[in-house]
Amino acid sequence: ELVLGKVNVTFDEKPKENVIETSFSYLKQRLGSINLSDKEIQDIFESLNFKCETKDVNLTVTVPSYRSQFDLTIPDDLVEEIGRIAGYQNVEPLPFMVSCEVPQDKNEFRKLEHRLRKILSDAYQFMEVYNYAFQSEDDIELDRRYAKEPIRMQNSIAADLNCMRISPLTGLLKNVKKNQKEHDSLRFFELERIFVPKDLNNKEGGEESLPDERHFLSAVWAENEITNEKLVSFASMASDLVFRCGVHYNEQLPERIKEEIFHAGRAGQIKSLKDGKVLLKWGEINPRLLKKAGVKKRVLYFETFVGDLHKSQDGKSHYKRVPKFPAADFECTILTDIKEDFINIANTAGRPDPSKKEGDNTYVENLEYLTEYSGDPIPAGQKAVSLRVTWRNAEKTISHDELKNLQEDLVNRLSGAGYKLRS
Questions:
Q1: pTM exceeds 0.70 for this model
Q2: Cβ atoms of residues 337 and 381 within 8 Å
Q3: CB of 249 closer than 8 Å to CB of 269
Q4: Cα–Cα distance between 226 and 213 in angstroms, integer?
């Protein structure tokens, strides 16, 4: 016979029973169209083995232990229980009471963004990419043109993504780095925002001020080798993009620029002749920067801020009737210093005047860069530049003698500026 000792209970902790403080008015408000009396609500709770105590308008509900672990902890959980028993099908769906405003008829800024996407993807065959709005400390070091210091996040999604983006370039360089082994040629563009911190010393800012969010469009064209022809083609593409956004070629002022991110002598910008605002920057990325980013290809890059393009649009139609009388062209080639900018040649030759209209006398309708060449038999340190000038008179056909005078005047102006005409 087996004899057992006395059973001792050592667990003296009481089972968990959640106590929820609420009121009948709170529960009824959230039940919506389900009309229940206080007595009916109390009966539902008691049928579920909940203990109810009322005092004035307050209601105290004690939840049994088997429902107190993770199930019923807040007043809204009680609303759920009442709705379950009373039947959710009895709740009449109603719209939220919010202010109703007439939607904006046209969002021109958004339309411009869609147009830019279509131009880059359809006309230029670039692929759109989506990058994080965050950067690492290493990314910040690559490009600080728009902000010396970024906004740093206290709870970043990753240790290497703790800064808000301050450059339109670095994300695209990462895309090139990840894909450079698989493809010889890469064309990416991104339409997003950078976050430029405001000056905290500015009285209009302050510690609580939000950063300046600037919408940008940036694009890269990565190849194993970038020839001068590709560089010229890329610059023409940049000018065409500005033209498609409403700024005529004759209203664009191209200039050469020097910035740390670009290869020396292989970068430029496009300004508006109306107000002098920079509309777009383009060029070949500096090899030293590419090495830091781990990119082994040569990269062409342009960037523009959508807000600047949007402001440059006047909203007017630039349609002109087809001219009744033909234009007259003249092509020539000049010798100049190998570092000479074409904009200087164009200014000397006489750039098109966008203010000219029908009824004006003979004027320069177009001035076009054709080609340039350096090497034998061109003397060292010089290059041959070919250009085409187009004249038009809206009132009559330009005569042979008049054309001859225009050509002589052009040659004399080029010669007077030190450009030698090449036969």
A1: no
A2: yes
A3: no
A4: 33
